[in-house]
TrEMBL record:
Residues 330-435 form the MOFRL domain. GO terms for molecular function: glycerate kinase activity. This is DUF4147 domain-containing protein. Pfam families: DUF4147, MOFRL. The lineage of its organism: Bacteria, Pseudomonadati, Pseudomonadota, Betaproteobacteria, Burkholderiales. InterPro entries: GK-like_C_sf (IPR037035), GK_N_sf (IPR038614), MOFRL (IPR007835), MOFRL_assoc_dom (IPR025286), MOFRL_protein (IPR039760).
Length: 443
């Protein structure tokens, strides 16, 4: 299998018109403009067309899964010269009209019957292809839940219970997808193997730290070096109890995924068309146009969201009070995918938990503002992208009788920010390059 490639560049600052200039910068408006630029840089219309191949001698089939897959399909359809047919599954509310590619909607993050039926149909759809045929696979974040085909002997209910347990456990996305791959009938390279001997070109929008293709939608077209034993280790590490028949699939090795060197994947190609780093660079360009230096601290930051919030508060405080490691004014940018171990009765959401922890640690520090949002428009299971904070956040909460520390202990970031009218709601963005975090330290 050809190694993943990426040639996409973020849009130039000239294309992202600045709306603000010093000395009259509105912190929230600037942070929102940066978030919008990050999302725009990962739009399929901008980054997909240049990666399309020439039509094959045989048929062209389009398959895919993820929150961005429907929009990817629409863009592909508009730019494709020749015969085309396809089946793509996306999250409820993320469908767009296509003429030749069927778009199916299913549930995310906990899978449902619609996703199960779509996964079964997809395997049937690619059966019986020839070496002259081409399969273009459109994959983006969310595909793991949208293609929930259980391994033999398992049920959708098994997958639903496991998904819920993984989401609440604090496991990283890589750990969760390792387990999913080894309990699946379609992930971990199995979908690409089903396309053999046709050529498979996978176009990826990455939403995972490190941009490892096997972790994006659990790698339905990627060879997988992890094993059933690795999946069992994840369950042990996070104390996730599963029924005996589920554990038996892993312990027996029946859930083993497709490995590197498998001849069914020979000649397949994977290309990244958008990544978190590209989105952060686009946001940094908007900040530069506004006259504020932006520093990208990392595009793959993981860990408990509240702990990351504490760590970033220390960096922001050092900048604000010491001018180290950067002079103010400046913006600290980061991406990745943190986790939330839900112990309270709140609704979770890693971006709002990060912000709530950051606000508590900063304790009203003057001149520090922040925004954290999921670039797909959904933070956790809420139809809310994220939120924003400033020096007055804690005081405004106290005036309403809300204690930030109590909300944090209860994993209720969404409730906290909704009460303050500080939530960021943008609706489906039709793309997904993971979390966007920006901290503005004013001069």
């Amino acid at each position: 299998m050809t190694p993943p490639t990426s040639t996409q560049q973020p849009p130039s600052p000239a294309l992202l018109k600045p709306i603000l200039k010093p000395p009259h910068i509105d912190p929230r408006a600037l942070l929102r403009a940066m978030f919008d630029a990050a999302v725009a840089a990962a739009q399929p219309a901008l980054c997909l067309p240049r990666h399309l191949p020439l039509p094959p001698r045989g048929r062209t089939l389009v398959i895919g899964a993820g929150k961005a897959s429907a929009e990817m399909a629409r863009v592909l359809e508009r730019h494709w010269q020749g015969e085309l047919t396809g089946l793509v599954v996306t999250r409820y509310g993320y469908a767009v009209p296509c003429e030749r590619i069927e778009i199916v909607e299913a549930a995310h993050p906990v899978p449902d019957e619609a996703g199960l039926a779509a996964a079964r149909r997809m395997l049937d759809f690619v059966a019986g292809l020839s070496a002259d045929d081409l399969v273009i696979c459109l994959i983006s974040g969310g595909g793991s839940s949208l293609l929930p085909l259980p391994a033999e002997g398992l049920t959708l209910a098994d997958k639903q219970r496991l998904n819920g347990a993984l989401l609440a456990s604090g496991a990283t996305i890589s750990e969760m997808n390792c387990v999913r791959r080894h309990l699946s009938g379609i992930k971990g390279g199995r979908l690409a193997a089903a396309c053999h001997p046709a050529r498979v070109l996978t176009l990826l929008i990455s939403d995972v730290p490190g941009d490892d293709p096997v972790d994006i939608a659990s790698g339905p077209t990627c060879a997988d070096i992890t094993t059933c034993e690795d999946a069992l280790a994840v369950l042990r590490r996070h104390d996730i109890d599963v029924p005996a028949h589920v554990r038996a699939v892993l312990e027996s090795g029946r859930g083993e995924s497709v490995k590197p060197g498998d001849p069914r994947l020979a000649g397949n190609e994977i290309r990244f068309i958008a990544t978190p780093q590209m989105a952060l660079e686009a946001a940094a360009a908007v900040a530069a146009e506004a006259g504020v230096p932006a520093h990208i601290l990392g595009d793959g930051i993981e860990g408990e969201a509240r702990e990351v919030g504490i760590a970033f508060s220390g960096i922001a405080r050092q900048v604000a009070t010491r001018g180290q490691p950067f002079a103010a004014p400046c913006i600290l940018l980061s991406g990745g995918e943190t986790t939330v171990t839900v112990r309270g009765n709140g609704r979770g959401g890693r971006n709002v938990e990060f912000l709530l922890s950051l606000a508590v640690a900063l304790n009203g520090l003057e001149g520090v503002h922040a925004m954290a949002c999921d670039t797909d428009g959904v933070d956790g299971q809420e139809e809310i992208a994220g939120a924003c904070i400033g020096p007055t956040t804690l005081e405004r909460a106290r005036q309403q009788g809300i204690r930030a520390r109590d909300s944090l202990a209860n994993n209720d970031g969404h409730g906290f920010f909704q009460a303050l009218d500080d939530s960021v709601v943008c609706g489906p963005t039709l793309t997904n390059v993971n979390d966007f975090r920006a901290i503005l330290i004013e001069g």
